[in-house]
Specification:
Elements lengths: L6 E10 L5 E6 L5 E2 L2 E3 L6 H13 L6 E6 L4 E4 L15 E11 L16 E7 L13 H11 L32 E5 L10 E5 L17
Parallel strand pairs: 1-7
Antiparallel strand pairs: 1-4, 2-3, 2-8, 5-7, 6-7, 9-10
């Protein structure tokens, strides 16, 4: 199904995990890496096509993901003649795509590259959001950059839990209402001790507990 300009309607999928890393798939028997994508069948809307492709290529169901955003308009790329079947040359020009940003709400083990008899990928990994475009087939790179840039505004905020470690203060009646992080904090004490108006030095350190992560046609 082509439009009047020779572009086939298509969807692209950027799937992120809870750390905003993206699913990065290695094409079957190829050195190219890419996002899941596929054509929109007659009678489908882009969202229906996206969920079908999500299952066919990655093995996920709609309940395994949350839709965060989609591109506002079609993004187009032209396919060089050497990648086009001979019988399609002259009327097929390339792809026009709606891109979806999805967040995985399931577990990694639920991804399945063999959900159908015609897999697209033979390996996958989580990658930083700004993927290395030099491993993407050249004629798709501009569209990838456009999609990533537009959808980056809708990425969830990733919050790390910070744990503040304070020293144990054993002297009573110590009135310290505010602390400032530094190597040492000088606090003037007015304690009822034998000392009269001395400077009490209290070490004060902070530490962050940051969670670490666990350790031939080109068209779809």
């Amino acid at each position: 199904m082509l439009d009047r300009d020779g572009f086939r309607p298509n969807v692209g999928i950027i799937l992120v995990n809870q750390k905003n890393q993206v699913f990065w798939g290695k094409r079957l028997r190829s050195h190219s890496w890419q996002f899941p994508q596929g054509g929109i069948d007659r009678g489908e809307n882009p969202e229906q096509a996206m969920f079908r492709e999500l299952h066919e290529e990655v093995g996920l169901q709609p309940e395994h993901v949350r839709i965060l955003a989609r591109t506002r308009d079609w993004l187009r790329y032209e396919v060089p003649d050497r990648y086009i079947r001979r019988d399609a040359r002259g009327h097929y020009k390339g792809q026009k795509q709606i891109w979806f940003l999805l967040q995985l709400v399931a577990q990694d083990w639920q991804l399945n590259l063999r959900a159908t008899d015609h897999p697209e990928f033979d390996a996958w990994r989580w990658n930083d959001y700004w993927v290395p475009l030099d491993v993407v087939v050249e004629f798709k790179r501009d569209v990838y950059e456009l999609a990533l840039t537009e959808l980056a505004h809708f990425l969830p905020r990733v919050e790390f839990k910070n744990r503040l470690i304070r020293p144990k203060l054993t002297r009573r009646s110590m009135d310290m209402t505010s602390f400032q992080a530094s190597d040492r904090l000088e606090v003037e004490s007015d304690l009822s001790l034998d000392m009269s108006k001395q400077m009490l030095r209290v070490p004060y350190t902070t530490a962050q507990n940051i969670e670490l992560p666990p350790d031939g046609s080109l068209e779809g």
